[in-house]
Design brief:
Chain lengths: 225, 354
């Protein structure tokens, strides 16, 4: 049996259902909207598991599902050494979002990461503590800033309403996912630099140890691995 | 697989030797306040140290090294000169990035350490000679460096203060340092920083921004750094040779760069002290960039002992001078000259078993 994990609600679920339907496999929620059970038509030996998108990386890595649909951002943030445990099978072309670093729009002297590094150094000297970046993507942001040798900053955890932290003076900058950038603009923040920290989209992943088992189903979807 | 008990026994041997060298044994806490370590080391420490929370004390970290608690203890209770030694576990996590490592490093291991707080110019040589003597039975390569040499070199560049300060600040970050240097060697490109209608937001003040813009504007008038200085810096950073050869290279460089003289003289004096301690200078590798890849806050003499047969290992012992750390921990107040190092008894036990 191939267990396919799919986000349990919202646009991500609907677009996932559409993606599989376009490949001849009909996924549906059984019973009422409140019940997290699913049905699969058009493929043998496949069962549907509806899960929170945030839990799919962990379930994939543990092998409790063989295939799963979730964002590349969540897999990379939540699974240390992700490539050893899961394989990226197919980008699905929706759920696109960029993980970006944003600073107050009023900082007209801050255009790129070199400016940011220099401002962080000044800020630390002036205020006696490190410039704060609010985010929930701790590992990704830390690794990216380390790779660019930015020092003098600290991460502060923000699990929601991250864009508001600058106005509330609990952070000086934010690192968050954005698709249109509208919320950022509404909060007088601007995206730093041309390249995001990560470009994310909904992606079909497989548990690496289950690749052989999943091969026939993936072939049916038109994916050769 | 060597039993922990055996590693502990090796550690006890070093601890005894440190005590015989005049050190007082101390036993710092394992749970340390996270805020101090974060302020010192930044986010890198969060990637390396285990963090947990205490309902009353807030965020705490499992001891990632002994230096901070020993320095804090000395600053509240001690008087110079003071020698301390310790033996205990440190805890380090490894965040593997995209792929799991084939052979993960140890997450908890013993450190046996010796720290010396003294204004004495002989302190560097004393610590190095002690480690050298204790480690001489093992096939290890002794390497030393000197961050003060590099910092003196940067200070001597014919550059405006703002540029010098930026270079000094990033001397431990080779990529950022190289970017700055290459920017300073080109004619400054005027920055277009258009006004914005956005309302002011956040804790960073408009005055802080104006001060930085004034600095950027002033920098526009600064002439580019003559490429000859970049070539000299590159030659300096690349010196990596047995100590007497490295000293000859340094003296050669000093001919075109007289400001290096005091730092070179300090290294000569230190080398003389090592010879007096019966350490052959030609057996020690001098690597000018050695301290750039170690912990920030090493700001003088640095050293390590690496197992030549095991390039996959971290150094079996390492240490250096960290006067800057005591200044930061002392909140800009008291700075105490300090030098010290650690040995990893677990690795020594493996060398003995091999």
């Amino acid at each position: 049996m191939i267990r396919l994990g799919v986000p349990s609600k919202g646009r991500l679920m609907e677009q996932t259902f559409d993606w599989f339907a376009a490949r001849g496999v009909t996924l549906s929620r059984s019973g009422s909207d409140r019940e997290y059970a699913g049905r699969v038509a058009g493929a043998d030996g496949v069962s549907l598991v509806l899960l929170s998108a945030g839990e799919i990386p962990r379930e994939l890595a543990a092998g409790r599902i063989e295939l799963g649909v979730t964002g590349t951002d969540l897999v990379r943030e939540k699974l240390a050494g992700w490539r050893s445990d899961v394989a990226e099978i197919a980008p699905m072309g929706f759920g696109r979002a960029d993980l970006i670093l944003a600073v107050p729009e009023c900082w007209r002297d801050c255009v790129d990461l070199d400016d940011f590094a220099s401002i962080a150094r000044d800020f630390r000297a002036a205020h006696g503590f490190r410039l704060r970046i609010a985010t929930k993507y701790h590992r990704l942001v830390r690794a990216w800033l380390a790779a660019h040798e930015v020092a003098d900053y600290q991460l502060v955890d923000s699990q929601g309403a991250t864009e508001g932290t600058v106005a509330n003076q609990t952070a000086e900058a934010i690192a968050d996912i954005t698709s249109s950038g509208e919320t950022l603009r509404a909060n007088s923040l601007k995206i730093l630099g041309a390249e995001p920290i990560l470009r994310s989209q909904a992606t079909l992943f497989a548990n690496r140890a289950s690749l052989d088992k999943a091969r026939p189903f993936l072939a049916q979807l038109g994916i050769a691995i | 697989m060597i039993p922990k008990h055996d590693k502990q026994a090796v550690g006890q041997r070093f601890l005894t030797a440190f005590r015989e060298a005049g050190a007082v044994e101390v036993a710092p806490d394992i749970l340390l306040p996270a805020a101090t370590l974060l302020d010192l080391y930044g986010e890198d420490i969060r990637a390396r140290a285990y963090t947990t929370t205490d309902p009353l004390r807030g965020e705490v970290m499992l001891r990632p090294d002994f230096t901070v608690p020993v320095v804090q203890m000395h600053m509240t209770e001690g008087a110079e000169p003071a020698r301390y030694c310790y033996l205990g576990e440190v805890f380090r996590k490894q965040d593997p990035g995209d792929e799991r490592p084939v052979s993960p490093r140890d997450n908890e291991y013993l450190q046996a350490g010796f720290e010396l707080f003294a204004h004495d110019p002989q302190a560097d040589a004393e610590v190095f000679a002690l480690f050298h003597r204790l480690l001489s039975p093992y096939p290890l390569r002794a390497v030393m460096g000197d961050m003060a040499l590099l910092m003196d070199a940067v200070r001597a560049l014919p550059q405006a203060d703002a540029r010098r300060d930026a270079l000094l600040h990033h001397v431990w970050r080779p990529g950022r340092f190289a970017r700055l240097l290459s920017r300073f060697s080109r004619p400054a490109a005027p920055r277009d920083l258009p006004d914005t209608a956005a309302a002011w937001a956040g804790l960073r003040s408009r005055d802080e921004m104006d001060a930085r813009i004034a600095r950027l504007t002033a920098d526009r008038d600064a002439g580019p750094l003559d490429p000859v200085w970049i070539a000299r810096l590159e030659r300096l950073f690349a010196i990596r040779a047995p100590l007497p050869v490295a000293l000859a290279d340094l003296r050669g460089l000093m001919g075109e760069w007289p400001d290096l003289a005091p730092a070179v003289r300090r290294i000569e004096v230190r080398t003389g002290m090592l010879s007096s301690a019966k350490i052959a200078p030609e057996s020690v590798l001098f690597d000018a960039s050695h301290g750039r890849h170690t912990m920030e806050y090493y700001d003088g003499f640095t050293f390590s002992f690496a197992a030549e047969s095991r390039p996959d290992w971290p150094p079996v012992a390492s240490g250096g001078r960290y006067d800057a750390l005591t200044a930061v921990l002392g909140r800009g107040g008291r700075a105490i000259p300090a030098v010290g190092g650690i040995i990893r008894p677990g690795l020594v036990a493996e060398l003995e078993a091999a």
